[in-house]
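Cross-posted from the bioinformatics board.
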Amino acid sequence: MGRSYIVEDAVEGCLSKLCEQKAGSVTGLLLGQSSPQRDFVVMATRTPPREETPAGNPVDKEWVSEHARQVSRMLPGGLSVLGVFIITDTEAKDTLTTLRQLVFAMESLVSSEQLWSPAEDDVSDCVALHINRKTRKTFCRTFDVKDPKSTAKPADWRYQAGVCSSWSMVSCCLHVDMLVPLPDNKTDPENMDKCLKEELRGWAQRLESGVCLMDGRKLAEDAELPGGQKRNVRQTYTAQILVTPSEQRLADVEQRCGGSVSIRGAVHSRAYLHSNKPKARLAQKLLKRDAVSTVTTRVQMLLEKLLTSEDENKSSSKQKRELFCLPHRVFYPLKASGPLCVCDYQFSDESVSEVTEWLKEMLDIDAAEEDLDSSQEAPGEITERDVGAEPTVETVVALEPKRNSFIGVAMATAVALLATAASMLYLNDV
Amino acid sequence: MVVTDSSDSGTILRVRGPLEFKCQLDSTDALLMQKVISRTFATLHSQVKSESCVLTVCDSSLIIWPNKGVYVTPEEITPNTLCEDIHQWIQTYEQESAGKRSSKKKNKKSSAASVINLRLMMDVTKTGPLSAPILRRTLQKSHFLSTTLPMDCVVRTTCSDTIKDAFERLLEALTHQLCEMEKVTLQHMKGATLLVPEPLHFLLPEPKGLVTVVYPAGVPDSQLETHRKKLHQQFELPDDWPYFRRANAFHFSNEPYKDGYLRNPHMVLTHPTLDNGKVYLVQGIYSYHHYMQDHMDDNGWGCAYRSLQTICSWFTQQGYVERAVPTHREIQQTLVDVGDKQGSFVGSRQWIGSIEVQVVLNQLLEVTSKIMFVSQGSELASKGRELANHFLTEGTPIMIGGGVLAHTILGVAWSETTGQIRYLILDPHYTGAEDLQVITDKGWCGWKGPDFWDQTAYYNLCLPQRPKVI
């Protein structure tokens, strides 16, 4: 049996609008929730056009993957990039190879940013949808991205009204407190990234094995969230997470270091579950993963910013102590009627308009500034008193704004950074 | 040890859980390092005293926030619920096969207090909204210390204690343990090298009961004698008997021994009642060694070896020696090494007797033994006073051999007025599995009368003398 995708009606409208555009192929991402039983597609978003498209290659694998990576960062727990769509004038079978390449390239990039450990019930099928511009015929297939030899499997693609409306939400405000040593003579952003990733992996494991309470109660793993069956009721749950540090071996108590990095503050974490009898276990898994990814994304964003600014200004890393605010999370409701939101991260030196512009670029959303919900997290405030033994100079570093207002440049920077990120990943995997 | 009939039950609450200890030592100046370490401990103190501190009952949905007015979930339980009632909320699993057939007798007799295990956790969620995180980068060559403190506290509750009473005490125990850990850490700091403080529980004679001591991990017992001396003074304990060696650490009833040997099987027996009689028993813990264990078929010749192993296990578990219980081969090799036997003895199936046991104890454990010679088994009935005295002052298991089979004597019941006597025998000739039920029902460990001995055969008894150390 193939997978079965239940698709929000509005996605059909969105796709047919894209079909009406000029000739040439259009690619984009399909967003929603996967579960072992069924998948829900809530949104389709086209990949923004690249300024200089490589000649002779109508579908830019790298570009679409980068889009998927950026969009993945903007999805709260429970929502993910499920796959890709492509609109062409050709027959569906002619696009199979392209779709296959796209899906695998995208998956390998997106999963490289995921620091949590995979679970048994994770869905490894990625959707690949082809639409013939002229006939409007839709072909839906899936690829198992965990199996490099997998071939296309037919899947069911069905539009339905109100897919976006009946979702439960689990959320919590999580306190983060990390302290990581930096190796001697290796305190640059690349090494910070390596050390922080390792710490975040450990933190992700501690969260995973932590106890999760829903509205103050510890539920059995197989239990359903209370009251979850009612349709069209916006169920919200507040979670608590109890953790315990992992026992360390005694051997590595002391080490020489060239400095340290600490991350302290709170993040708002949330996950959405399609209200079809959601299980406590799923809610926990998605919420914990969101916690890991929201922290990882921010650290990544800050390091990307640091990399560019330290390249420009080598001397800035000579300061003994520096403080940086990680960006805070801002939510934007997908639809006024439904509970689903997407999110973005705003650095304190960025204006709200930069967030709305980014939403437009990445998700093609015309967001009104007043609809942005920035009430879940306050921007980081540097008020910490330095309790160090000796007086030291603390520098609060203002970095250049991350995003440029016109399309393409920001993405180009990101693609350039990608090469570095990928090579660091190799090192980590060894 | 004179057995007093104390039916001392009650519930022990035991909380365990690591606390992360991380700090950066910018300077190698001893005073500044101490300051940083004390500051890190202070942070942990405030964590344990904060509302985020949570204690979860293992295998249960029960969770307690001791610093939120001892808030408890689920709602069916309140701070005023009796501690004992927690048991009803714990899922119990089927006992392992060894214990499955354990009789009612065992349950009735085991006076060990029940243990409720708790986990120390931190609630990392807060009521939002709060400020987004700040990243701080410090560049300075220094030493980074990173470890986890293995917190492990116990409190003993009585049947009238409520959850509130008990958990307030548990929290006190936690903060006290952090203080102790800080002391030990600072005391054993060498340069920037830190020894992880390690809490251990010891069961002292009543009314003192369970006591927790923090030792620096990795420092051998031999280097901690001054520490132990202070403890003996503090708890007014005799200074010729080890109470605080690591091997003396209390073994909780819900933690099975991993080596598979049964401990003190005689504990489930009912002692004989003699007119004006008293019971004198082996003191401390031994393991039961008998035929066919360790994949070693010694049926028919190994009984004295097994009895010797039981004695060795006593010395190991009382902390006198750190060596493992010797194998048959090691025992034989030792006898060859001291010139007692020819080289061909190693690997043979030859018997050994009480004198060989004495030699091996002396050679491997540096333990001296007295030999008691009895020319006729019938004479053993008159050795009550000597045997009673041995168990009172030495408390070690006795090996008895001679013209016939070897056995281990674990105690005597003896009446000073009538001279009546019973012997508590541990029989090494048992060939079955480690089934306490069979062993005690069939008399492999049991009380025997004077007719147990071959009235005409001669006997040699090896009475190991314990070293007078702490």
